[in-house]
Amino acid sequence: MNIVTRAAALVGTTAAIALPVTLLNAPAANADVDRQGSCGGAQFDFSVDRDDDRRNSYEISFDLDRAADVKYRVVLKQNGNTYYNAARTPDREGDIEVERNRANTSGADTFLFKYRNTVTDKVCSRTITVR
């Protein structure tokens, strides 16, 4: 073997070993995602989590805390398609909770929540995109 052949063999062997190690240490592309914040006087928590019990699906959770004692229009969408749309009134603690399971579609999935205070017409929304 000449020097060029040996060098090519060494580079190829190193790459073959390094690639699997790199893939093992790469962060998960499908990590659970959570968005928290405040809007319109209420606190929200919006999360998209891999559903461990259902293969290839997500658990979507929307919580609205410290909301005024009025009706809110709550809308949840996946990739632009509405899968939840309801008028909700907070419970005694001022909370509204919605949990749904959704299928993982091919490619990236974009989830959106939107809520509107039906008295003030204040609209708040956030999106989460997962792969």
Description:
The structure is a single chain. This protein has 131 residues and is an alpha+beta fold. The protein has one domain (33-130): Sandwich (Immunoglobulin-like). The chain is built from one helix and eight strands. A four-stranded antiparallel beta sheet has the order 1-2-3-6, with no helix packed on it. It has a four-stranded antiparallel beta sheet with strand order 5-4-7-8, with no helix packed on it. The longest helix has 23 residues, at 3-25. It is elongated and about 80 Å long. The model is unreliable at 17-29 (pLDDT under 50).
Concise description?
With 131 residues, this protein is α+β, with helices and mostly antiparallel strands.
Largest sheet: 4 strands, antiparallel
Shape: elongated
Strand order of the largest sheet: 1-2-3-6
CATH class wording? Mainly Beta
Number of helices: 1
The CATH topology comes to Immunoglobulin-like
SSE pattern? HEEEEEEEE
Poorly predicted sequence stretches spanning 5 or more consecutive residues: 17-29
Q: How would you describe the oligomerization state of the chains in this entry?
A: single chain
**Average predicted local confidence, pLDDT:** 82
The tally of strands reads 8
Helix percent reads 10-25%
**Ends distance:** 46 Å
What is the number of independent domains? 1
Structural class given helices, strands, pairing? alpha+beta
CATH homologous superfamily placement: Immunoglobulins
CATH architecture annotation name: Sandwich
The Rg value, from CA coordinates, equals 23 Å
* Percent strand: over 45%
